[in-house]
Amino acid sequence: MESVDYYELLGVQQSASIDEIKKAIRSIRREYRIMEGSPDPDQRRRAENAMSILSECERVLTDPNERAQYDAQYQNAAVRQVMEAQRQQKAKSEETCQQFYNSAQEYINKKNYARALVLIDEAEKYNVNHDILVPMSGAVCCEGMREFKLGLKYLGTALQYAMEEQSKEYEALVEDLFGITFFNLEDYANAEEAFDSAARACPDQPNYACRVVFIKTLQHKDAEALQIAQALSQKYPDDAYVRNVYINAIFWYVARVIASNNATDAMIANGDQGFDYWFTNTRQIEEARKYEQLLAQLGPVVPSDEVFCPPTSRNENIADMRRQLDYASKRSWDLPETKYLVALGIGWVVFAFIMFHFDPLIQGILLLILVTAAIVAFGLWRCYCYGWQYNRRICGGPINKTGLQVTA
C-alpha cells in the first residue's frame, strides 16, 4: 500500500486535517458501494480493491504515528521521483548534445566551419555535463574562419569548465590555445601571459615553456628567452623541439644582443628586413664566437614544429651570421683612444690661444672651423665602428672608405 499516494487518491493536501480526510474517504466510498452491487465482475473487483485501499488509507492517515511514518516515506518517494525525472532529462540532454557535437565534427572535417559553429552552439545549450570538448571545438571553428576574437569567448567557457573539473591538463591546453589566439591577433603581451600560465599548469610539458621562449623573442626579450631555453635544454636534452627552440634563442641573442649595441637602432637601420649583424668590437666577436661554437655542437635546426620554428630559414640565417662573423674577425677593431685624447688636448690649447691672441672676427672664423672639425671627427668616429655595416654588398669583399683596416 505504501506505493499509493493517499493524498492524491483522496484529493486533499498533505496538511489536511483528520476531519477533512474522513470526509473525503466517505465520499469516495459511496461511489464504490454502488459498484459493489454491479453485475459486472470486473467492476466488482475494482470496487473491492478500492475499498481495501480506502480502509488502509483511513487506518494510516487517522493515526498520528502511522501518518508521520507515511509522510516521511511519501516525501522520500517524491524526492526520488523528482531526481528520476531530472536524471531522465539529463540523459536526454546528453544524447542531444552528443548528436549536435558529432554532426559538428563532420562539418569540421569538411572544413565547413560556419555550419559546424552553428551546431556547436546548439550542442552547448544541452551541455549539462560541461564537456570541455564542445567549446574547444567552437574555438577551432573560429580559428578556421579567422575569427580569433570570437574564439576567445569559446576559450573562456572551456577554461571555466577546466577549472570546474580541476584538470591541470585541460587548463594548460586551453591556456595554450589562448596564447595561439593572442599570437594570431598580434597581442604578444597577452600571448606570453597565456603561454606562461600553461607552462605553470603543466611544468612537465616542455612545449608550453617553449612557447614562452618563442613569444619572448618576438618581444625582443632575448636574454630572458635564452635563459629559459637553456634550462629547458638541460632538462630535456633529447627533445628535438626543445633543441630547436634553444638554437632559435641563441641565434636571436647573438643577432640582437651581442651583435648590436642597440637592438632597436639596428632593426630600424636595417628596415626590419633580413639580418645585418653589427659586430663592432673585439669583445662582441669573442662572445659571439662562444655561442657560435655552441650552435655548431647543437647542429642544424630540424623539422619539429613548423609554426613556431621554421628550420630552413633559420639555418640560412645562422649560416649568414657565421659568414659575417668571419668577415668581422678579419678586421682590426682597436680604436686609437690615445690619439683622440691627444687631439682633444691640442684642441683645448688652440681654443685658449684663439681666445686671447686674435680679434673677434678672426676668433669667430677659427671657432667655426674648430667646431666643424669636431663634428666631422665625431662622424668619422661613428663611421669607424659602424659605417661598413650600412653596405651589405661589401660583406666578404674589400673594405670601402670606412676607416677599418685590414690586418690580414
Descriptive overview:
It is a single chain. Helix 12 packs antiparallel against helix 14 and helix 16 packs antiparallel against helix 17. The protein is built from 17 helices and no strands. The protein has 408 residues and is mainly alpha-helical. The N and C termini lie far apart (112 Å). Among the domains are: 80 residues, DnaJ domain (Helix Hairpins); 101 residues, no CATH class; 58 residues. The C terminus is likely disordered.
Q: Work out the helix count.
A: 17
Proportion of residues in extended strands: under 5%
Rough shape? elongated
Low-confidence stretches: 261-275, 383-408
SSE diagram, text form:
Elements: H1 6-10, H2 18-36, H3 41-62, H4 64-109, H5 113-125, H6 133-144, H7 148-165, H8 168-184, H9 188-201, H10 206-218, H11 222-235, H12 240-258, H13 263-269, H14 282-298, H15 311-329, H16 337-357, H17 360-386
Helix pairs in contact: 2-3, 3-4, 4-5, 5-6, 6-7, 7-8, 8-9, 9-10, 10-11, 10-12, 11-12, 12-14, 12-15, 14-15, 16-17
